[in-house]
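Tutorial handout. Part one gives the primary structure; part two gives the three-dimensional structure as tokens.
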Amino acid sequence: MKLYEENGPLLPNNGIVAAYPNWNNQAIDGLRMDIDNTPDWTYQFGYGWNALLLNGQKAGQNWGLCTPTQFPNAYFAQVGLIFDSTGADFAWADTQTSCNPQRIFTSVFTGLSGDPAPASTGDDLIFQITVDDSTDTWILYAYNITTSDYWYKSKVVSSSNLLAIGTPNTSVFYENPRVAGTGWSNGFAADPVVDNAYERRDSNGGWYNWSSEAQNDFQCNPGLLSIGDYLSGTTVTGLTFDVSDIDADCGI
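Part two.
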């Protein structure tokens, strides 16, 4: 669960396909991702993990985002789904974990115990990253609407009240740390979909559709395909990640 910086992806073998809000006239302090139907995933040995993530970067310093010693001058956080040998689990990461994924364990969920929190095929999910302007508190939030299970993590990040905009680090993206052709698509019965994404505007605290959107791929080699081959739709109409093309072309 690494990310893009100005000088390129921190892990050069991670393929990433991203959609991110891209505008200059709105300050935002929150981002949200809705998945109305958790993808049907079957793990195949040797293919590693895949992740569908909501990401937020603190406005300001845009380097050292995965370097714990740069906290709190720099801060980056993720929350979402990770697909691996245990199925589809909730996970998070941030600057202080060196952007390495942390499973969300069910001891903090209602009615569950023992294993990483599952998201079953077909479950409706919401993920949010928000910043409380008055306390500099970041809140990472995951909610399974179908089961009513939820999780959140809060962290005070000094001098922090807005998310960076116009960057893939404040985004929705799909990621795999494998080399091209070794395993994005093999576990999915159908292409994964993000049904909607929203921004929380600092001016009034309301949630809105993204006012504009950019889409890019990173580390997709040989890079002969356009972003439209990897990703279709928008965060308003639904984003579909074409894992067959991503599997063939993304990663080193």
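Part three, for discussion. The radius of gyration is 17 Å. Confidence is low (pLDDT under 50) at residues 1-12, 106-114.
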